[in-house]
Amino acid sequence: MIFQDKIRIIAYALLNTNPAKLRQVLATIPDGEPMPALYTWDVYIPLHFITMSVERAIHRPEEWQSGYVEKVRETLKLNDEIKHILTDKFSNFSFYDEIPYIDYGQSGAGFIYSDEIEDSIEDVFWVKDKTQLTKLGANQLDIDLYVAACKLQVGEMERLLKLGANPKAKIYNDGEEWETLDRVATEAAFLGTQINSALAHEAAASVGIDDDDGGVTTLISLGLYEMMYAMLKKYCNN
User: Fold this and answer.
1) How far is it, in rounded angstroms, from Cα 223 to Cα 30?
2) Is 200 exposed, middle or buried (0-12, 13-18, 19+ CB in 10 A)?
3) Measuring CA to CA, which residue among 35, 14, 39 is closest to residue 24?
4) Read out DSSP for 114-144?
5) What pLDDT is attached to residue 31?
6) Percent of all residues in the chain with a pLDDT value above 90, rounded to a whole number
7) Mean pLDDT score of the chain, rounded to an integer?
8) Alpha carbon distances (Å) from 155 to 88, 115, 137, 145, 151
9) pLDDT value for 211
10) Which of the 8 DSSP states describes residue 171?
11) How many Å apart are CA 134 and CA 159, to the nearest integer?
């Protein structure tokens, strides 16, 4: 059994893409152990989700500011090295595992914000009359896509996009224009301000205690929104 104090050290090495630190702490752990999980925000987060989230968070290094492109490319290389280390050390996990974003969003702590699955369109948009939503040309598919994004329903988003939902459709809501792509991009940008310096190795992200964790959960959230953004961009008309 690997205790949480050591798990936090491993998480720190993964979060900051530090293979040397990771090898150091793993040297005292027998090979073949099941993938450990970090306990924070009232949920257990398998450690390989951190490595998966690094990859998802910066899968588009060319879109970073010019001074950071090479830095994040190097981070991706280090992350690939870490993937090999984890594969050699631990068992019973896969980098193709699904991260339960919806569960995290609806957990007691809810470190990823999501509207409740059962919420209606009126609840999501905070309106009583949903007929106004199509005033600027958005159709029902476009509205459903926005709702699916709010609820972190990635599979439903992909289904709606394949049916023709427009990520940039203008949804009218009490005098404002809302669109799915903009909402997801805004969430990603906000999360990025909290973790991007660590991803570019300009600062170290911390692994806090209990609900004070500001690194792992932020990274997982950013990975989700970057994944959603990339999906939406594929289906944009321009």
Assistant:
1) 30
2) buried
3) 14
4) ---TT--HHHHHT-S-GGGGGTTS--HHHHH
5) 95
6) 68
7) 90
8) 31, 16, 25, 11, 11
9) 47
10) E
11) 21
Q: What is the pTM of this model?
A: 0.91
* CA distances from residue 72 to 3, 9, 18, 200, 214 in whole angstroms, order as listed: 31, 22, 13, 5, 20
Residue 127 has pLDDT above 90, yes or no: no
Do residues 215 and 203 touch, judged by C-beta distance below 8 A? no
Question: Do the beta carbons of residue 134 and residue 172 sit within 8 Å?
Answer: yes
DSSP state of 63: G
Cβ within 8 Å of residue 67, ≥6 positions away? none
| Residue 75 and residue 17 in contact, taking contact as beta carbons nearer than 8 Å | yes
Alpha carbons 12 and 127: distance in angstroms, whole number: 43
pLDDT above 70 covers what percent of the chain?
95
Amino acid at 161: L
* Overall residue count recorded for the chain in this entry: 238
117 φ, ψ to 5°?
-55, -35
Q: List the one residue out of 189, 125, 129 whose CA is nearest residue 151.
A: 125
Whether residue 219 is predicted with pLDDT greater than 90 in this model: the reply is yes
Q: Of 233, 95, 103, 83, which Cα lies nearest the Cα of 168?
A: 233
Report yes or no: 199 and 54 within 8 Å, Cβ to Cβ. Answer: yes
